[in-house]
Amino acid sequence: MTTIPDDEATLRIEFDVMAKRAGLQIPDERREWLFEGFKDMRKDLPLLRQPRTAASEPAAVYSLDSITRTIVR
Amino acid sequence: MNDMNIVETALHELPIAEAGRLLRDGSVTSEVLTEAALDRIARIDPSIDSFIVVTAERARADAAQADADFAAGVDRGPMQGIPYALKDIYDTVGIATTCHSKLRIDNVPEADSVVADKFRQAGGVLLGKLATHEFALGGPSFDLPFPPTRNPWNTEHMPGGSSSGSGAAVAAGLVRMAMGSDTGGSIRGPAAYCGTVGLKPTYGLVSRRGVFPLSTTLDHCGPLSWSVEDSAIALQTIAGFDPLDPASAKVAIPDYRAGMTDGVRGLRIGVPRHFFDKDETSKEVIAAIDAAAQSLAAAGAIVEEITLPDYELFGICGRVIMYSEAFAIHEADFQNRPLDFGLLTWMRMTLGAFVTATDLHQATRLRRELAVAVNTMLLDYDVLLTATGLVTAPALADVKPGVANWPMQTMPFNLTGNPAMAMPTGFSASGLPMSVQIVGRAFDEAMVLRVGASLEAATKLLSRRPALA
């Protein structure tokens, strides 16, 4: 999803598929509000995709120490 | 609107350090402080709804214990005998921790959160649990089990969130210090709207264990208080390594008050003006930030304009991480009992369902780059000075469903984890507080507090309270 669909119908399909995949139950009266929130976030998602190097990794550092220090025999 | 004009003793105006001095020389007892606070809460809180529950019995027991300890020569530190309160996402043994939600209305923890336990061990007096936006996200809402908190400066306006009860209670003088939590600005936002100090410490400095999570890689625990020194005392009490909090950092804990009055002469302060100098920003807010910068410069600081990455990058990065982590925590409830969430919580948190795994990973990569950029800048500057919010507190009637429509500038430092403190700087023409944010190097809360103390001394706002207080 590096680009935004340029028509609302495609965006609605994306919205419906993702909602179904997440198991969401969306009351009719909330659907348009949520869709507007989805569009607002969706339009900014391309900002996450910018040229970057491997130096950006590892982004979410896995820390074994944070696990082993919690284990007490 | 506020029409009360209560004349009473000024016990609630005692700074924590001064109250501690009086407790130690026998001029006042914790019982007296506690009864005064309980009385004040009973009279004032019905107009602002900052408390979910007042734990009067527990408070009296804590006060009696503190007084007994003083009498026996036992001194547990500066919080001994001092009333405080906790946002209602902090677990408290035997006292419900509801997260302001129908989903946890009957949740009574069997153990204290680490922070609650530290205050107990330090001899603090727990006055009660404070209102929050539901699960520290959804509010202000009228469809939750408890009413939303109102802003003490104008009860038709919101107090900010999610630590709304904490900000309002401190501003109204119900408690000198209250604990909040901050995932995207939930300490600093209420502090800004209510005219208090709000300190988000460095990520990992204060244990989050026993505090209900919103977004685990962004969550921070910290105090809201009337003065900078009050926050320093609270931080001294709660900072420290916790091996059972995976994010906890093993760092030395300094004396946070030691250099607090050293002034700012020679310090370098960077101002990312492009963050807040926008069309949507209140001109009064910009003027207040400029005035704060000039005040610090007049006190000898070197103030320079700097450039950070575009604010919009911080914004989307934070939203993607926060919503997806929050949705993951609540996924089962969203699928099985979604209508038990308040509308605003449901609207905001549901957005996490629309984040893909790739979106999230790209966000975590970007997060690292943003943290590098901010911390590289902090090699050249002792602190950064920027906006907390772009406008003053909106009216409750203007709150809309969906994305929060009150622009804040707090998320960047949840992403980077740097310490950040909201400080009052003045009032708008309509009488609502304005605020600036001071951002420091990782684990250099002492410097943030030092600059805050200098600004506090210059602005002289501590004597101005809401009319109802």
List keywords for this structure.
heterodimer; A: 73 residues; mainly alpha; 3 helices; 0% strand; flat; B: 469 residues; eleven-stranded mixed sheet; 11 strands; globular
Describe it for me?
The complex is a heterodimer of chains A (73) and B (469). With 73 residues, chain A is mainly alpha-helical. With 469 residues, chain B is α/β, with parallel strands linked by helices. Chain B has a single domain, classed as Amidase signature (AS) domain (Amidase signature (AS) enzymes, Alpha-Beta Complex). Helices cover 36% and strands 13% of the residues of chain B. Chain B has an 11-stranded mixed beta sheet with strand order 1-3-2-4-6-5-10-11-9-7-8, sandwiched between helices. The chains are: A mainly alpha (73), B alpha/beta (469). The interface between A and B is large, with 36 and 44 residues.
Q: What is the tally of beta strands of chain B? A: 11
Question: What is the share of helical residues of chain A?
Answer: 40-55%
Query: Total strand count of chain A, please?
Result: 0
What structural class do the secondary elements of chain A suggest?
mainly alpha
CATH topology name of chain B, in short, is: Amidase signature (AS) enzymes
Give me the strand/helix succession of chain B. HHEHEHEHEHEEHEHHEHHHEHEEH
Quaternary state reads: heterodimer
Rg estimate of chain A, integer Å: 19 Å
What pair of chains forms the biggest interface?
Answer: A-B, 36 and 44 residues
Gyration radius from CA atoms of chain B, angstroms: 20 Å
Categorize the overall geometry of chain B: globular
The total domain count of chain B is 1
CATH architecture annotation of chain B: Alpha-Beta Complex
Beta-strand share of residues of chain A: under 5%
User: In which range does the helix fraction of chain B lie?
Assistant: 25-40%
The average pLDDT value of chain B, as a whole number, equals: 95
Low-confidence stretches of chain B: 1-9
Query: So how many helices of chain A?
Result: 3
Q: According to CATH, what is the class of chain B?
A: Alpha Beta
Main β-sheet, spatial strand arrangement of chain B: 1-3-2-4-6-5-10-11-9-7-8
Separation, N- and C-terminal Cα atoms of chain A: 46 Å
